[in-house]
Structures are given as C-alpha cells and as structure tokens.
Amino acid sequence: MTRVLIGALLAGVASAALAADLPPRQPYNYSAPVYAPAFTWTGVYFGVNGGGGWGATSNGSFGNLSGWTFGGTVGANYQINQFVIGAEGDWDWANVGHTQYFTFSSNQMNVNQTLTLRARAGFAMDRALLYVTGGYAGVNANASFSTPLAGWGGSQSQWISGGAIGAGVEYAFTNNITAKAEYLYLPLSSTTFFGSALYSTRAPVDLSLLRAGLNYKF
C-alpha cells in the first residue's frame, strides 16, 4: 500500500513538472469575415462624351443636318434602394450641318455648340443603371445664304433653345469608373434667320444625339 501511494505521488510530481514545461495555451482570436461594401450610384461625377448628331429643318430651308459632337459632362446621383435620381449637364462642341442647294441660291446651317441641363431617374441593378432623362437644351446655330447672280448673301449666328428628352444605360466597371450610352431628342424652337425685306427664312430644328460617355465618380 505504501509503495502504491509513493508511486502515485511520484507520478503526480512528474505530471506537474511536465505541465510546467509546456508553453501556455494561446487564446483563440475570432475574426469576422470582411465583406466589400455594396456599390452605390450616390456621388458627384464628371466625364467626357461624344457621338453623332442629326436632324431636320421642317420647312426644308436648310435640309437635313448631320455630323458629330464631343464635350464634357458633370452630374450627381442619389440612390434610394434600387432607385436613382440625379441631375446632369453637358456642353459639347459640334459640327452638325448641311448645305441646301436651290436653282439660283443655297442655304447652309451648322450647329457648332450644344448644351443640355437635365434631370435623370433610373433603376439600378447593382452596377448597371437604366435611366430616363429630360430638361433644357440649347444650341448655337450658324446659318448663311448665298445668291451669286443677285449678289446677295449673309450669315447669322443664333442661340436656339428648346427641350431634351431621352434614355440610356450606364455601367460601373469599378467603384469610380462608369461608361454610358444614351439617346437624346432635342425639339428646338422655330427661329427666323435673315429677317429683312430682301430675304428671310424661318426654320424649326429638331436634333437627335446618339453618344457614349466615360465618367469618374467620387
């Protein structure tokens, strides 16, 4: 019995000594998984846009216009759930024109600037945005006429105001870089050119713009 007690005591001492030599157990640190924040369209952005333009003068004085546009864009969006509202403005250089020839004369019109200030409303599907847009539009148009046999001629530049309505799609490739494609229809007011006793013509101009854009969002 004495030997058993002595053996048990020695085993306990050995176990205690061995435990003292082991490194202390390190506490387990649990780290919650890190998720990337959900993309949002909310923010201010600026960018560039360009594309083609075409249109018609309804009374045929200047014929059908066609050409290109290129310029800059600035805007802001605010996202509520999947709905996005915002405002956008752009100013473009343009070369959208045509020369209309008649028997003894010719008329020429060239739209060399476009400006739009529009509201936007859209539906977001994560990084894709479908939107409609509408607001103010204005263009600077230069018109000229020439009648070589009579020796008449002249030119006139005029700012023409109207509206803008359209739709488009935009996609965010990163949290900051987005690209879009859109169509805008610009019904502009009827304007009288060369209002004189010798010659005048009144020309309503309706333009269509089909363009792409690249934006940087903050």
Automatic annotation (TrEMBL):
Q: Name one Pfam family in it.
A: OMP_b-brl
Alphabetical list of InterPro entries matching this protein: Beta-barrel_OMP, OMP-like, OMP/PagP_B-barrel
Matches recorded under SUPFAM superfamilies: OMPA-like (SSF56925)
Q: Does the keyword Membrane apply?
A: yes
Renumbered to this chain, the signal peptide range is 1-19
Q: Where in the cell is it found?
A: Cell outer membrane
Q: Among its keywords, does the record have Membrane?
A: yes
Q: Which UniProt keywords apply?
A: Cell outer membrane, Membrane, Signal
Q: Give residue ranges for domain Outer membrane protein beta-barrel.
A: 31-218
Q: Which GO terms describe its cellular component?
A: cell outer membrane
Name the major location.
membrane
* Gene3D superfamilies given in the database record: 2.40.160.20
Q: Which family does the UniProt entry place this protein in? A: Belongs to the Omp25/RopB family.
For this protein, the record's PANTHER family field holds: BLL7405 PROTEIN
Protein name per Swiss-Prot or TrEMBL: Outer membrane immunogenic protein
